[in-house]
Write a structure and sequence with these properties.
276 residues, alpha+beta, 2 domains, six-stranded antiparallel β-sheet, six-stranded mixed β-sheet, 7 helices, globular, disordered N terminus, binds adenosine monophosphate
Length: 276
């Protein structure tokens, strides 16, 4: 594990929250979650304060605070997929993807093609290797250590974009426009197998039995798949094919490391330096 950095946006309000914050001004103003702010701050307080017992009235004040009241309007209408509980850290494993200007333009063009449906671009692009799961704060270290140990033996790889695909989350509260991704052999399946095995030690939900690897490039509220015609899908595919034919290098990207995001922390997990 090479680095540990803090990233600013982590409320874990949705199993898809890791990936889908719109780039508009409203989202930039979003507050940091009380959970992520408090977890670290509380630790410091616990270490540094004397042990005077708290009156029951004060204690009950804080135990009520375990449940976080959620207002979907604060999150562009998105709803939580699992309950927000104090001390639970939303955790997700993925391959980061950094689009260049040409890819950003292509994404804009694809999203425009879906108008009048209100698809928004993803803030951060990634290839998921896990679902978003909730872990306890004290699991972070052993879980990331175990992920790093497992992933170190797997090789880096090169991925290729192929078709345009639509997904919904399990709750069918959001639709995603995505680009399907493939890689040589079974390397992507090996990454998810490694993650699943580490998750299993903590009884965390595994990834899909039949994973369909992709990078989501836009999202929209609700299940709008029935509203997208075959013609529109065909048009999207034509736009993608034309852009990839013109810029053949855009078709490929390398997997050099894997990211574990948990709460407001981000760990970069290293793979074997060779390419598979
Ligand atoms: P992601 O961009 O990885 O967050 O994925 C977008 C959505 O696709 C997530 O909410 C996934 O739950 C959903 N999804 C549905 N079916 C699958 C599948 N077979 N493999 C991977 N993701 C899937």
């Amino acid at each position: 594990m090479s680095s540990l950095v803090q990233y600013s946006d982590s409320e874990g309000e949705n199993s898809d929250d890791h990936d889908a914050i719109s780039v508009d001004a409203v989202s930039r103003k979003r507050k940091q979650s009380p959970q992520s702010q408090n977890s670290v701050g509380n630790e410091k307080k616990i270490r540094s304060t004397a042990v005077l017992p708290l009156p029951d009235t004060i204690k009950s004040l804080f135990s009520k605070g375990d449940k976080h009241l959620d207002n979907p309007e604060d999150h562009e209408g998105r709803t939580r997929s699992f309950e927000h509980l104090e001390g639970n850290w939303a955790t997700h494993i993925s391959v980061p993807y950094d689009p260049d200007e040409r890819m950003r333009e292509l994404i804009g063009e694809l999203l425009l093609c879906l108008r009048p449906l209100d698809f928004k671009p993803m803030k951060e692009l990634h290839l998921s290797l896990s679902r978003t799961v909730a872990i306890r704060h004290h699991w972070i270290k052993p879980l990331t250590d175990s992920l790093q140990n497992r992933l170190r033996s797997l090789q880096r790889t090169c991925c290729e974009f192929s078709s345009v695909k639509l997904y919904t989350n399990d709750e069918k509260t959001r639709t995603f426009l995505s680009l399907a991704v493939s890689a040589p052999g079974n390397i992507l399946q090996e990454y998810t197998k490694a993650v699943d095995e580490c998750f299993e030690e903590y009884k965390l939900q595994k990834y899909y039995k039949d994973p369909s690897y992709h990078i989501s490039i836009g999202w929209c509220l609700h299940d709008v798949i029935p509203e997208i015609s075959k013609e529109t899908l065909h048009k999207l595919q034509e736009i993608l094919d034309a852009a990839l034919e013109e810029n053949t290098d855009l078709k490929l990207f390398t997997v050099e490391n894997i990211i574990c995001k948990t709460g407001n922390k981000q760990f970069s997990l290293q793979l074997n330096k060779g390419y598979g």
